[in-house]
Amino acid sequence: MRNRLNRRVAAAAGAGISITMLLAACGADQIEGSGGSGGGDASGGAGTGVDAAAEIDCAPYEEFGDIEGEEVSLYTSILAPEDQPYIDAFQPFTECTGVSVTYEGSSEFEAQLLVRTQAGNPPDIALFPQPGLLQTIVRDTGTVVPAPDQVEAAVDEFYGEDWKNYGTVDGEFYAAPNSANVKSFVWYSPSAFEEAGYEVPETWDEMLALSDQIVADNPGGEIKPWCAGIESGDATGWTTTDWMEDVMLRTAGPDVYDQWVNHEIPFNDPAVATALETVGGILKNEEYVNGGIGGVQSIASQAFQEAGLPILDGSCFMHRQASFYAANWPDGTEVAEDGDVFAFYLPPINEEFGNPVLGAGEFVGAFSDEPHVQAFQLYMTSEDFINNRAAGGQFIPPHSGLDVANLQNPIDELSAELLNDEEATFRFDASDLMPGAVGAGTFWSEMTAWIAEDKADAEVLDAIEASWPAS
User: Which of 417, 444, 459 is the last residue of a domain?
Assistant: First the structure.
C-alpha cells in the first residue's frame, strides 16, 4: 500500500472515536462519478466538511494483499447533491490502498440493478436501500456474495442485531448496514409559522386543525397547508408509501405493522384501508395541496427533490419528508430551529402507540469477492468511514463508533436523538422490507395511480394484495 497514514485518535466519551483530520496539504486522487450522480472530484470536498486527506488506519486493509491500481464500481440510488459527501469519504480509502472507486447513482436503481444482475453485468458493490430487494436478488439470481468474515466481525462489533438481520437472507449474512434515516418529519419555515402566529402541532388533530386554519387564512387558495411530490423516475410513488407507513404505525400500531410487512394480514386488511383513508385526508384534499405547484394530480408529476421548495416562497407551509431532504434545499438555506427551514416530528394519532418513528437505511452488498472489493466493504463498516461520511452531513449511521460531534446539522442531531429515544418505537420502512415485486413494485405504482388517476382506495389495495408473491 502506497500511503500508510497513521491514525491519531482522541478519546470521546460515550459515542465513539473522534477522527483527527490531517491538515497538511497532499495530493488526492479523483474518485469518479457517473450516471445520476453528476460525477465529482473528491480531492477537496468543498463545503462538505470532509478533508480528502483524513487520517485513517490503513492496517486492516493490508491483509487483502497488493490491491493498488484496482477499481471498485459502486451502484446506488443516492443522487446529487447527496452523492458528493460519499465520494469525498471514499478518498481516504483510495489514499490508503490505491484502489479507485467509481460512483454511479441512478434514479432507476431498483429496476436496473435486477436487469444488470440477470444480464451478468452487476456492479462490484450495490448500496441497497431495501432489504426486500436484497432478498429478491439473492434468492432469484444467486449473484450476491456473502459478506467476508472481516465485515461480519465488524458488524457484530459496531451494529445492533436488528440491523444485521436486515442484511441477512435465509440465515446467511450478505450486506452490512451503512446509514439510517428518520422519515417521520414535517418540514416547515419557522419564520413563516411565527409571522402567521402558528405553533408546531404536537398531535395529529392539532396538525389537521392547523391545516384548516391555513386554508381559512388564505381564502384565495394560492397558498396551501401542504406541498408534495412523488416523481422519482422508476421509483415514482415511494414518497406516498412513506406516508402510508408512518400512518400505519400511528393508527394500527407496531404489532399490526409487523403483520402487514410479513403478510400475516392481507394488504387490503381494514387496518391498511384505515391508514390509506387517513393519508388521503391530506394528500387527496384539494384544499390542502399542492401549494405552489398545482392540484392533487400535480403531486404525481412533481419531482420529490423539489416538492418542498414552495415552503421558501410561502406557497405552502408543510412538507412531510425524511431527514435526508435537508440536502435538497438550495445553497445558502439555513436549516435550523430558528433558520429558513426546519422539521418537526410527525405527530402521533393514537396515544396507545406512543411516539412511533419510521426510518430506513442502506446496506452494502457485493457481487464480487475479489480482495479489493472485500477491502472496500470493510472500509464502509469502519469507524473511519462513518465518521468521515458523517462530517459531510445528512448521514446518521446506526454505528456505535459514531462520534456525535461529527454530525453537521440540527436535523442530523434531531434524527440521532429520535433513533436513540428509548420511549420511541422504531420500525424500518415497510416497503423496503416487503418482497421487491411489492415493495419496489406494485406498492409504488398503485400509490402513483391513486394520486394520478384518482384510483379508488379499495382497488389500489386489492391490486397490491393480488401481486404478493405466492411463496
Answer: 417
Element (H, E) at 173: strand 172-173
**What is the domain-level CATH number for residue 438?**
3.40.190.10
Structural domain of 257: 185-355+423-467
Query: pLDDT higher for 269 or 324?
Result: 269
Q: 244-302: per-residue pLDDT in tens?
A: 999 999 999 999 999 999 999 999 999 999 999 999 999 999 999 999 999 999 999 99
203: which 3 cell numbers?
Answer: 398531535
DSSP notation for 295-318:
STTHHHHSBGGGTTTHHHHTSEEE
Do 133 and 17 share a structural domain?
A: yes
Instruction: Tell me the backbone φ, ψ of residue 404, rounded to 5 degrees.
Output: -60, -20
Determine, yes or no, domain membership for 1: no
Cell numbers found for residue 353: 402507540
Cβ 144 vs Cβ 138: under 8 Å: yes
Number of domains in the chain: 2
For residue 3, is it within any domain? no
Quick check: 453 and 430 in contact, CB under 8 A?
no
- Summarize pLDDT for 201-248 with one digit per residue, the tens: 999 999 999 999 999 999 999 999 999 999 999 899 999 999 999 999
